[in-house]
Amino acid sequence: MHARASSDVQVWDPFVRIAHWTVAVGFFVAYLTEDAKIVHVWAGYIVGALVFARIVWGFVGPRHARFSDFITGPVAATHYLWDLVRARAKRYVGHSPAGGAMVIALLAFLAATVVTGLVRYAEEDAAGPLAPLYAQTSSIGGAQTVEDDENQVGERGGRSAFSESHEVIASITLGLIVFHVLGVILASFVHHENLARAMVTGRKRPD
């Protein structure tokens, strides 16, 4: 056991690990606290800041944190998933092709969730960093009022397209997270390693 641990190599740097778990916690806090506005908003700010930092880190971080290390395209990702369900997928020290694709998808949808949330916050509460811009234009990105007799929001009497898309995108993001967790469990079983623990310690076996 000790010899095995000493032979492991450092794969995930501290920032990747901290950002990974903090974003996960922040997303679920925000998802579950829609009615607790301050908590919801600040959780969103934290997620947004970390997503932005992770994107930058994808260009300047260490080897396995860089996009160039794990972006392989949809064909490679699909082939990896097909091999994974047949328990014959190749093992990767860093992100697998499917894992890399999931990283990109999650970053994109998390960013979209944050941006639409900021627009919604500006629109409904006249608050947040986009509030001045929203006040000047009265409509960001072509936001249009959507009639909704069952969902009244404040004094506006309806939710904009951005408000609706915020909830939809957040739900899609949740679905991606569930799929990600299932993929990690399956890959851990197929490759005989605990991938969740590796994202805590940062270490994996070299081959």
UniProtKB/TrEMBL annotation:
This is Cytochrome b. Its main location: membrane. InterPro entries: Cyt_b561_bac/Ni-Hgenase, Di-haem_cyt_TM, Hydrogenase_cytochrome. It is a multi-pass membrane protein. It holds the Pfam family Ni_hydr_CYTB. GO terms for cellular component: plasma membrane. Residues 11-202 form the Cytochrome b561 bacterial/Ni-hydrogenase domain. The keyword Transmembrane helix applies. It comes from Mesorhizobium qingshengii. GO terms for biological process: respiratory electron transport chain. Keywords: Cell membrane, Membrane, Transmembrane, Transmembrane helix. It is found in: Cell membrane. GO terms for molecular function: electron transfer activity; heme binding. PANTHER family: BLL0597 PROTEIN, NI/FE-HYDROGENASE 1 B-TYPE CYTOCHROME SUBUNIT. The keyword Membrane applies. The chain crosses the membrane at residues 12-32, 38-60, 98-122, 168-190.
